[in-house]
Amino acid sequence: MHQPHPALRQPVTAADRVLLEIQRAIVEGDIAPGSKISEPELARRFDLSRAPLREALARLERCHLIERIPNAGARVVRLSTNGLLALYQLRENLEGLACKLAAEHMTDAEITEVRQLLDQHLSSQRVREGESYYQEAGDLDFHYRVILGSKNSYLINILCDELYYLVRMYRVQLGMNGPRVSRAFDEHKAIINAIANRDGELADLLMRRHIAASRRNIEQQLEQMGT
Amino acid sequence: MHQPHPALRQPVTAADRVLLEIQRAIVEGDIAPGSKISEPELARRFDLSRAPLREALARLERCHLIERIPNAGARVVRLSTNGLLALYQLRENLEGLACKLAAEHMTDAEITEVRQLLDQHLSSQRVREGESYYQEAGDLDFHYRVILGSKNSYLINILCDELYYLVRMYRVQLGMNGPRVSRAFDEHKAIINAIANRDGELADLLMRRHIAASRRNIEQQLEQMGT
DNA sequence: ACGAGATAGATTGTCGACAATGTACGCCTA
DNA sequence: TAGGCGTACATTGTCGACAATCTATCTCGT
Question: CA A171, CA B169: separation in Å to the nearest integer?
Answer without folding.
Answer: 37
